[in-house]
């Protein structure tokens, strides 16, 4: 049972009583087949990805109060400084405004791990570091996207490490087929996150293609707001993916603590996500699993998108039914062919959720209810949503693909140039020169995982020798 740690003071604020809200991830294929309008062809879901993430979702029934709780980690007091900072350079002042354990709107000087290969310095087999500092292969390509020059990078990831390169520590999160561990490199003593997937489980859940896609997509991407994959390896039972450890926890936890974000705070996170989507789409990659659970905060408060389990290279259209019910676009629900436009729909859902504290089509019922609501397409916008934000949301959360922003002639440019984002200086944002609205209270220096929930640890030892029945499915690891 995963419990989001709610701030103990939250209950004293004037909000609707918490509604018990379970994870919005789908139950798996069988859950979908129950409903006649749901397609079964090609339905591939990870089984309830965070099924044990029992959490509290605040649903507005009579209109939410316009106030953000004072004890929220992102209070309205940050609004002015943030909207100023979205356009300008961060001040060098470091006036700590610490609330609810986090530090708001100040320039951080925290020392942080710069991206470094786990065995870059001492291990000769790793003299070419992967990830953010990696070199591109001679065959790389460049394209201009909405606001960014993108490069297709192909990093070598296969078999780069072994289990003995790392000391495994606690679990940071669990998924349908495995878990993510905090690990320490025995070579440079830095901390990383290693995703461990059980091969048998991946095969059983028919996720071989998605898992190989995840590795391949992560291998290709290189962007400030996307997680870096350093390398992969496998043993007889498990697959391992070595990533940067992102210390600040999930945006999901921050949002639940805050209930909802002030307009400029939501705008900051939405803008970083929009840049990441713009980049992915320039590589013809659809992400397909946008939601606050997959957005991690680095120690400075910038976003990193993780979990590329549904990311796929799709030059034109695809039909695979996958994602998370609340975030599915109607064309996915209706089993039509779809393209990158589904990510822009999901961005709309994400912005709505950040501004309101709940998703627009959720009604406390089953995923089927959510699908019905999505297909019905009626969205109730609370009065406190800024008019510009509402205009953007109406153009993102539209079933009409000829009208959906991001899917029109100018592509992602039309999203980035929308009036809600008017004050965003995209170049500065991309180079992380805009100060984030919230600095996670990462204590204890590097390797501090206190912002992550606790999980029961794996009981089965990693690296055991034995027959490898599934290795042939994962030859690229
Ligand atoms: N690089 C990272 N740094 C810190 N924590 C991470 C990192 N990657 C993942 N996590 C944590 O682990 C959790 C599970 O990761 P992820 O969603 O990638 O796993 P998964 O097995 O693909 O799950 P699912 O079945 O939901 O797809 C995340 O929600 C996050 O809390």
UniProtKB/TrEMBL annotation:
Its EC number is 2.7.11.11. Signal peptide: none annotated. Residues 422-477 form the AGC-kinase C-terminal domain. The keyword Transferase applies. ATP binds at residue 195. One of its GO terms (molecular function) is cAMP-dependent protein kinase activity. The keyword Transferase applies. It comes from the Eukaryota. Residues 123-151 have a biased composition (Polar residues). It is an enzyme of class 2 (transferase). Residues 81-100, 107-122 have a biased composition (Low complexity). One of its GO terms (cellular component) is nucleoplasm. Residues 166-421 form the Protein kinase domain. It catalyses: L-threonyl-[protein] + ATP = O-phospho-L-threonyl-[protein] + ADP + H(+); L-seryl-[protein] + ATP = O-phospho-L-seryl-[protein] + ADP + H(+). InterPro entries: AGC-kinase_C, Kinase-like_dom_sf, Prot_kinase_dom, Protein_kinase_ATP_BS, Ser/Thr_kinase_AS. PANTHER family: CAMP-DEPENDENT PROTEIN KINASE CATALYTIC SUBUNIT 1, CYCLIC NUCLEOTIDE-DEPENDENT PROTEIN KINASE. Belongs to the protein kinase superfamily. This is cAMP-dependent protein kinase. It comes from Dactylellina haptotyla (strain CBS 200.50).
